[in-house]
Predict the structure of DNA ligase.
Amino acid sequence: MKSIYDKIVELRMQLRYHNYMYYTLDSPVISDSLYDQLCTRLIQLEKKYGKKNSFNKSNKLLKQIGGKKLHIFSEYIHKTPMLSLKSTNNISDINLFERRIKKYINGIDDIQYYCDLKIDGLAVNLLYKNGLLVSASTRGDGYIGEDITKNVHMISSIPKKIIGANIPKIIEIRGEVFIKKSDFLILNQLAVSNNKKIFSNPRNAAAGSLRQLNPNITRQRKLMFFVYGYGAFVSDKKIYSHNERLSQIKKWGFTVDQNSMLCSNIKDIIKFYNKIYSNRTKLDFEIDGIVIKVDSITFQKKIGYVEKYPRWALALKFISLDVETKIIDVSFQIGRTGIITPVAHFIPVNVSGVLISKASLHNISMIQKLNIYINDYITVYRAGDVIPKIKNVVVKKRDKLVKKIICPTYCLSCHTQLVYSSNNIFLYCPASFLCPAQNIQRLIYFASKCGVYIKGLGKKNIIKLIDYGYVNTPVDFFILTTNMLQSIPGIGKKLSNIIIDSINASKNVSLDKFICSLGIVDVGISISKILANYYKSITNFIKTNNDILSDIKGIGINIASSIMKFIKNKNNIYIIKKLIGILNIFFIS
């Protein structure tokens, strides 16, 4: 049951991190589809095990729509929740979406769907009272956003006053703030000429421009605004169609993108999707899919909402575009566990609004699998619209100038002879703590939450301690003094005392955490728990052999091989025995 608990905690931590990166910092590191997969997995685990265990009380995280606001802006409470959208990149999910819709409206077949573009920008809420713009805010966590009224006043495409007839008493206009591709290129060109940091993509540029403390910077960025919906709507004139409401909003002086379509069936929706997908590169702004909404406001109310999104809407995301480029080099990186990762460097190309110039080949066997050479032409894409990957080699374009990729035989850091894993998938350096490149990352990992956890001693400070010669092996953490710490730039008396207290507290460590802290290839948190439950002491663990390991459920041939190679290294055993004499390594039954 502990492993289930750990998985739930891990998923919660991942989701909190990704919420913060996307909604608060506007710097997502995974795609919406991958985020949704994490949410779905957490829901499944908590639904299955939550009733039997205390760890599943009301999990506010799953009900959270966005992320926390930045403290530099004051709070704004939305009059109606600013919900997110359920998303998919599988066209066949439209059928499931429609079946669910019909279930909520008693099987009515005559359903109209309003389809429009999913613009890749920053969602904004505009509150108008009696036709005047009184406030503007970001989505935030869906309930409380950031007040960005002053900055929004700098965007020319946002009316400060509604014009025309039948002006509502109260209306929340909702839409996307974005920057055009052409303006984005100019913005980055100016940044380069002024020796300033460039933006990675138009969305980040728009978000960064809108969240400036100085509104004049926002004014200079040429931001645009398209309406996609509304929140509160208090009006004497009743409009019962989403399409008609947007038409009325357009008459009031707002910009609504013309790329929309009313669809009567799934066939029409797919036709619209294919049309937009084919023409997306012709648009002067970034989009990452289409949005499908039930058009009837009456039906929308019947179908309702869940905590995070309306049941009556679905975002159908695009699969990342493939772009051709040319390999110019392959470098080799050394990871924390000594695994050698080949990285392909190619002529920089723009993929879905982001300039990329390299992609991991993951392991040595991938070079053979792709049959790739230097100077080959390749197609690259961004997996989940985030991670750069090589799809294939354009073999028909291969010429006499291609060169074979020569894999290293000795470690580029410590010059130890590299060895292949038992399944011949990857090369790695067996020197462990004696390899400088590995050692830095191993020491950081040892002191992290995955290891013994020395609070206050982060990555930057550990690197400084290594540079000053105070820390070379994990043992050295436990002989640090306040005087040594205070000699490091940035570590004062107060922090040094905190770190020493943390070091002393970390001396009591569970067996599974200690095994995990060693950074053995393929031995992470869950495998460490299996090993701890079997051996029950660190002494038993370091005396193990292949026969014993092969009898442990969950330990395969590759993991067993990694463990044996690690404990056969005399330096590793020397360090472990030194740590045994310092730490209280206990087993939790």
Remarks:
- The chain has 22 helices and 20 strands.
- The two ends are 12 Å apart (CA to CA).
